[in-house]
Amino acid sequence: MDSLLVGGLVFVFLSTATSTGLIVRARLPNHHLNADSKDVIRLATAVVGTLSALALGLLIASAKSSYDNAEVEMRTAAARILLLDRVMAQYGPETDNARQLLRELIEKRLSRGWTAETTDETSGKAVGEYQDIETVQSDLRSLAPKDAAQRALQARALEVSGMVAETHWLLVESGKEGLPWAFLTVLVCWLSLLFATFGLQAPANPTVLSILFVCALSVAGAIFLVSDMANPYVGLVHVSDAPLRSAIERLGKP
Fold first, then answer.
1. Residue 15 — pLDDT band, cuts 50, 70, 90?
2. Digit-coded pLDDT (tens) for 77-127
3. Cα dist from 212 to 18, 44, 46, 201, whole Å
4. Most buried of the four, 6, 101, 231, 235, by CB within 10 Å?
5. What is the pTM of this model?
6. How far apart are CA 193 and CA 200, in angstroms?
7. How far is CA 192 from CA 26, 70, 148, 181, in A?
8. pLDDT (tens digit, 9 = 90+) per residue, 129-170?
9. Predicted confidence band at 173 (pLDDT cuts at 50, 70, 90)?
10. How is the chain classified by DSSP, letter by letter?
11. What is the pLDDT of residue 227?
């Protein structure tokens, strides 16, 4: 689900919960909201507030971890691409075709995006990314080394190309993980309960309503950031493809 939509829905839920609390407050008898009642409400909501803070903290930590791992994977993939190209360059001109295929693979990745669906989809004569790297590997296997040095370079190139292929399949397997939606749903329910109690205790004046609006917007913004960072290759907060763009400038050089 789009991160902006998730944040917007959370804001709507929290605003609705606050409005519900304000409506209920206007209809309750006065003795239901005396000092003793409000003390009990505050104690009860303090427990839910603590749980919500812990849950939101865990979600933020999980999303940040996913983002950091994706950033490391991006830099590692760029380094492996460059290493593979240099190993093939050392082998000799026999690898020129494989080096060109490798460059085309990176250009395709940069143009198609980072989701598993776009990297593996076929379009006209353009095959999926996994087929591109398999073609590079086939070219490497078909080489006929003339001496021990070329045999070592061929083995090293096949090893590194296997790592590049592994990176692709890791993207495919992890591309649909995203947020733990059941966890997020429970968190939003807790937050809605909190904002409902805020409305239940708050006088309906412009100052209080403005503060509650800003609070709801802030919480929705936090959920948006968590949702966006949990999908680090797409969205507004995404991993930069600068390492690959830098790598492609070095590919194919003697």
1. very high
2. 889 999 999 999 999 899 988 899 888 888 887 877 665 555 555 444 444
3. 8, 19, 17, 12
4. 231
5. 0.73
6. 10
7. 19, 32, 69, 16
8. 557 788 888 989 999 999 999 999 999 999 998 888 887 777
9. low
10. --HHHHHHHHHHHHHHHHHHHHHHHHHS-GGGGSHHHHHHHHHHHHHHHHHHHHHHHHHHHHHHHHHHHHHHHHHHHHHHHHHHHHHHHHH-GGGHHHHHHHHHHHHHHHHH-SSHHHHH--BTTB--HHHHHHHHHHHHHT----SHHHHHHHHHHHHHHHHHHHHHHHHHHHTT----HHHHHHHHHHHHHHHHHHHHHS---HHHHHHHHHHHHHHHHHHHHHHHHTSTTSSSS----HHHHHHHTTTT--
11. 86
Residues 167 and 87 sit within 8 Å (Cβ to Cβ) = no
> In this predicted model, which residue has the larger pLDDT, 1 or 243?
243
Residue with tokens 């709507």: 12
Burial label, 138 (beta-carbon count in 10 A; 0-12, 13-18, 19+): exposed
Place of tokens 């919480």: 219
Q: At what angle do helices 206-229 and 35-91 cross, to 10 degrees?
A: 30
> Other CB atoms closer than 10 Å to residue 156's CB: what's the count?
17
Measured distance CA(233)–CA(190) in Å, rounded? 30
